Structures are given as C-alpha cells and as structure tokens.
C-alpha cells in the first residue's frame, strides 16, 4: 500500500507543468552539448567528406604547351625513356650545370618567381636584308673595321672583326641567292651539289648547264695510307684539313670513320668552306694569322696540308707551332709542298727549312715520298728537355694555358705535353666515344660529384632524350647531315646521335661562358669549337640542317651581355631553308623565344619534355621553311 502511494505521488509530480518544462530544457541542453563537442572535435575539422583529389593547378594560360606523346595522359614516360638507370644525384647536378639553375639558398624561390613571370616582349617582323648580303658573315665581312685598321694587305683581314655595340651584328634576314634549291641530300651531295647554292666558285665546272656541279677528283687520303700505323677509323679518328679545296680529303675519310674538319679563310674567289658544307662535309672558316685557332690542344690525331698556302717556316715557325699545339701526342702531320713552290730551287730551300724546324720541335720524319712528307709528334716531353741549350723555339712556360683559345695571340713556343700523359693516351675508336677520358679531371668546374659520374649521366640523359625524339618527332626519318649542338657540354648529344646510327656529323660548340669541355669532346673522337654566342659564328649562311640548343638561352639571359634576339637571328643565318632548330630550355624564357621565332618567320610549336606538362623545361621546335 505504501509503494502504491509513493508511485502515485511521483506520477503527480511528473505531470506537473514545471517538471515537464524542466525536463525539456535539460534534454535540449544535453543535445546542444553533444553537438558542440562533435563540431569541435579534430575529426570534424580535418576529415572532410570523401571526394576525388583535385588535380594540380595548370600552368599560366599563356604557357599551355602542345602535348607530344613523350608522356602519356597519366604523365608517365613513353617513347623508350629509361631514366631509372641514371644516378639521381648525378642527373640533378648535371641538370643544374646544363641550364645554370641557382641551387644555393633561395635559388628555388628565384626560379619559381622567374617561371611565374608573365612579361611578354613584343618583336616586330624582321625584314629581309639587301641582296648583296646573301653570303654575309658578319665578323669576317666587316669592311669598315678592316679599312679603319688598315688591314687590306695583312692576314689579319681574314680574322674576326665583329661589329661592336650599339651596332648590331645583324638586324635583318639574309636573302636566298637567285635560283636557290633545297640542298641535295647526303650521300648524293658528296658528289653533286646545286651550283646556284654556292655562287662565285671556280672550284668546279657547271655540269652541262644543268645548274648541277660535280666535285672533281682532287686530294684523297691515298697519300696518307703509306703509314699503316695511322689506322683510319681506329687510331686516327679526328683530322684537320688545311686549305681544303673541295674537301675531297674530308669526304674520303668520312667513309672510313674519320671526322675531318676542313678549314680555309673566307675567300670571295673560291668559297672553299661554303662548298664543303654544301657537300655535307665538316668545315669551318678559319685562318692561320695572328691568333690561335679555336680548337684545344691535342685535338687532332692527324693534320693534313696538301697544296695549302702556308709558309710554315716563316715568322720563326709560329704557324707550325700552332699546328703542333693542336696535334695530339703521337699524331701525324702530312705535308705536300708542291705546287705552291713551283720552282725546284725554291722547293728545295723550303724543304731544307722545314726539315730544320721540324727537327727542332722534335717531330720525327717517318715517311717521304716525292713531294709528300709525314712527320710524327713525340709522345712526351723527353726530347724537348734533352735539346741543346739555346735551341729555338723554347718550351712554353708554366703559365701558358694551351686550351685558352678565345681571342688569344699566337706565341712562339712549344706547347708542353702533360707529364701525366693526358690527351695522348686515348682509347681507339669507337671505344673512346664512351670511355671517360683522362682530361675530364683537368676541367675547371664546380661539381660535388665525380666528373666520371657526370660524364656517364650526360651520356645516358641524351640517349634517353633522343629515344623520345625518335618516337615522337620521327627523327629517324629526317635526313640531317650538318648538325650543330650550340651548348655541347661533354658532347653527349653528338654521341647519342652516333649511338642511334644517324648518318650525320655534329659541330659541338662550347660557349665561352661555360666550362671548357672541348678537350674532352676531342678525346671522345668528336669535333667542336669555342664560341661566344653574343657574336656571329664563322660559317657561311645556310650551312646547317639542325641546330640544337639546350639551356643556351637561359644561360645567356642570365649573363645579360646581348639580347637573345641577336642569337636567334644568327641561328636563322646559319640554318638552311627546310632546316630545323630544337630549343630545350626553361619555361620562363619560352614566351620570348617563341615571339622572336615568329618575328623571324619560323613555324613553331611548343612541346612538353619527358617530365610532363608541369616541368620547368619545354622544347620549342622551329622550322625554317622554304618560301
């Protein structure tokens, strides 16, 4: 009875309005408390509702590049790229060296700021130069400077005299000669070229009025084969042919795996170098005068002078000493004096003087047959050091740098050979192409990794890139013969072309602003030259089928010596109609390069690299089409 009374009293309390109101408020408070606790919990703040991961932001609209297929839709490498075999540290350091990126503190932010820059310079369309400039070489045709210096009767008139700022070296596009044809492809061009493409040359005769000229059977390599030890294409890989005529010697040796660089001064009467390049034979305008030639010490396994117009014993033999500087230890010098010295008495006197000079510089006469003589350079310094006291010319002193060649005056002294044998103990061809040469260790460069690692990384880097170019741009279908790498490094691009069996030769250019890798390039069995791209190159117009520039423009932009439009105008001067330029560089400079290329009249397209659409590098493909 008592329990029932208690339950009845409790129910009466629950039914009262005040209790109901209190209970409702309590429940509301508890609900609100649980809600606040949930909203303020870490899981509520940082765990969003599941949704797809947003894509990476696209580059700025003006830099959207055409996809090439080097990467697929997922950004994966295609086209045979195998970068996993390259040491990542070596590859990164190589990339910093190649494109001169800032790697110190704050360097990354500086790079990102450059890439975010949207400055776009406007270039008006370039006009065509007057017809008289169709064969113009700016630094060799500077008539005003030659007259000012009174060099009309001096060999110096054949040397470089470049227009000086504010006068531009070129501000217009060189016109084609009348009747110009697309060059005959290699190897047919070795024997036949269009006469209208090489005006003013008496070297060969017009072939029956067909506007075709056939090369004459001039100098060949038969006179050099008297020495079996020369071993073309094995021990002898690089050669220099002086005053080359129609470059028959170089064309002959190309078929024997010897790359022969033919040189001669610019001569309006003969145009030897223009003719050689039209044939597809390696050639460059160069002269023995007052400055060093632009090739390193111990560059050539063989130097050939047949019917060349050089008096080697004059001026204390200074020109033969320059040839000696460029000749590899143990290399051969081939000389045929006749018919320059036509009178027998003069010929005998010249021969006696030549014998005397060559003996004093320790060359050994290994063969003489008729008017042809072949000497061999010593392998070390022992002969030089054992000469009698006072014998001239002297050995060069220790401050002499034989690889410093940019605007350096000739010196009447014998270039010492390295005591460690560097340069003279290269492997035979083709092993030497991929064997890291000893002179790698002589390069003055800032690198934390070993030079051997960088050398191997560069070779792998360019081989994989060429794989991609073949797959995407169909390079194997191109018939390029004359190729220039405008920033060659160790020569990895040229080596990759050889590995992929391209039937072409490469002029490897080492810019003066970088490390001097020319000795390494020649030790590999390749050819090259030192150059400053703020000045015109020593070649005739319309002489190269392919120009390759990797990291060149970003380096020159940072240097701030010249406007990069001057470099591209020079590229247009050197490039044949129907030729192509591949520019691989940072995205921050591509807008300006594409603007200049359009102003020049090239047909351009911008492409991704193997690293995908968001990488800092792009490839600008430029075609110089025949009008």
Describe the structure.
This is Methyltransferase. The structure is a single chain. The protein has 17 helices and 16 strands. Among the domains are: 1-29; 80-104 and 459-627, Rossmann fold (3-Layer(aba) Sandwich); 217-385, Rossmann fold. It is globular and about 65 Å long. Strand 3, helix 7 and strand 4 form a beta-alpha-beta unit. It has helices spanning 2-14, 17-39, 42-46, 88-99, 107-116, 143-148, 248-254, 272-279, 318-326, 344-360, 382-385, 451-473, 492-499, 518-523, 552-559, 564-574, 587-600; strands at 192-194, 212-214, 238-242, 259-264, 283-285, 300-306, 327-336, 364-369, 372-376, 482-485, 505-511, 527-531, 544-550, 575-586, 603-608, 617-624. With 627 residues, the protein is α/β, with parallel strands linked by helices. The strands form three sheets. The protein has a seven-stranded mixed beta sheet, sandwiched between helices. It has a seven-stranded mixed beta sheet with strand order 12-11-10-13-14-16-15. Strands 1-2 form a two-stranded antiparallel ribbon. The model is unreliable at 34-84 and 100-118 (pLDDT under 50).
Q: Determine the CATH superfamily of the domain at 80-104 and 459-627.
A: Vaccinia Virus protein VP39
Overall pLDDT metric: 83
Helix content: 25-40%
How many helix segments? Answer: 17
Total beta-strand segments = 16
Biggest pleated-sheet summary: 7 strands, mixed
- Identify low-pLDDT runs: 34-84, 100-118
Q: What spatial order of strands do you see in the largest sheet?
A: 5-4-3-6-7-9-8
Radius of gyration: 34 Å
| Assigned CATH class of the domain at 80-104 and 459-627 | Alpha Beta
N-to-C CA distance:
119 Å
Kindly report the CATH topology of the domain at 80-104 and 459-627. Rossmann fold
Shape: globular
Structural class, judged by helices and strands? alpha/beta
Membrane topology: Single-pass type II membrane protein
GO molecular function, one term: methyltransferase activity
InterPro entries: Put_SAM_MeTrfase (IPR004159), SAM-dependent_MTases_sf (IPR029063)
Family: Belongs to the methyltransferase superfamily.
């Amino acid at each position: 009875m008592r329990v029932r009374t208690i339950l009845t009293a409790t129910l009466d309390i629950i039914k009262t309005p005040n209790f109901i109101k209190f209970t409702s408020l309590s429940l509301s408070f508890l609900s609100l408390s649980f809600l606040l606790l949930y909203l303020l919990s870490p899981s509520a703040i940082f765990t969003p509702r599941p949704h797809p991961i947003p894509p990476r932001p696209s580059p700025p609209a003006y830099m959207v590049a055409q996809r090439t297929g080097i990467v697929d839709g997922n950004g994966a490498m295609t086209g045979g790229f195998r970068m996993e075999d390259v040491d990542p540290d070596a590859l990164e350091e190589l990339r910093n060296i190649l494109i001169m990126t800032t790697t110190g503190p704050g360097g990354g932010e500086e790079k990102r700021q450059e890439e975010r820059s949207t400055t776009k310079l406007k270039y008006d369309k370039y006009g065509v130069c007057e017809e008289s400039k169709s064969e113009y070489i700016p630094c060799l045709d500077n008539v005003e400077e030659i007259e000012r210096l009174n060099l009309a009767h001096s060999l110096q008139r054949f040397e470089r005299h470049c227009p000086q700022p504010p006068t531009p070296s070129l501000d217009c596009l060189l016109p084609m000669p009348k009747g110009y044809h697309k060059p005959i492809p290699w190897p047919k061009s070795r024997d036949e070229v269009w006469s209208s493409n090489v005006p003013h040359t008496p070297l060969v005769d017009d072939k029956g009025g067909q506007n075709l000229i056939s090369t004459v059977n001039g100098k060949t390599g038969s006179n050099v084969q008297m020495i079996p030890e020369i071993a073309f294409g094995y021990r002898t890989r690089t050669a220099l042919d002086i005053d080359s005529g129609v470059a028959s010697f170089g064309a002959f040796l190309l078929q024997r795996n010897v790359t022969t660089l033919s040189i001669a001064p610019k001569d309006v009467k003969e145009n030897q170098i223009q003719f050689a390049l039209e044939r597809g034979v390696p050639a460059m305008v160069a002269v023995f005068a007052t400055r060093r030639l632009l090739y390193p010490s111990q560059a050539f396994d063989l130097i050939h002078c047949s019917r060349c117009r050089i008096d080697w014993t004059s001026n204390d033999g200074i020109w033969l000493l320059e040839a000696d500087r460029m000749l590899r230890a143990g290399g051969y010098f081939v000389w045929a004096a006749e018919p320059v010295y036509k009178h027998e008495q003069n010929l005998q006197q010249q021969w006696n003087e030549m014998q005397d000079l060559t003996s004093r510089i320790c060359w050994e006469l290994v063969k003489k047959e008729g008017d042809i003589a072949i000497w061999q350079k010593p392998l070390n310094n022992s002969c030089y050091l054992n000469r009698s006291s006072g014998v001239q010319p002297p050995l060069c002193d220790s401050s002499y740098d034989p690889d410093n060649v940019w605007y350096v005056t000739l010196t009447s002294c014998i270039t010492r050979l390295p005591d460690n044998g560097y340069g003279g103990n290269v492997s035979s061809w083709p092993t030497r192409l991929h064997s890291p040469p000893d002179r790698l260790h002589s390069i003055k460069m800032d690198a934390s990794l070993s030079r051997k690692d960088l050398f191997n990384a560069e070779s792998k880097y360019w081989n994989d890139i060429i794989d991609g170019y073949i797959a995407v741009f169909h390079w194997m279908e191109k018939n390029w013969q004359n190729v220039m790498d405008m920033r060659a490094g160790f020569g990895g691009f040229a080596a990759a072309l050889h590995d992929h069996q391209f039937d072409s030769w490469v002029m490897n250019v080492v810019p003066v602003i970088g490390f001097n890798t020319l000795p390494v390039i020649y030790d590999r069995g390749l050819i090259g030259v030192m150059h400053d791209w703020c000045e015109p190159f020593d070649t005739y117009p319309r002489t190269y089928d392919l120009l390759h520039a990797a990291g060149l423009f970003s380096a020159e932009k940072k240097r701030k010596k010249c406007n990069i439009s001057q470099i591209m105008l020079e590229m247009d001067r050197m490039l044949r109609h129907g030729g192509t330029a591949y520019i691989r560089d940072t995205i921050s400079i591509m807008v300006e390069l594409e603007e200049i290329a359009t102003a020049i009249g090239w047909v351009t397209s911008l492409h991704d690299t193997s690293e995908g659409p968001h990488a800092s590098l792009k490839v600008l493909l430029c075609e110089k089409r025949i009008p």
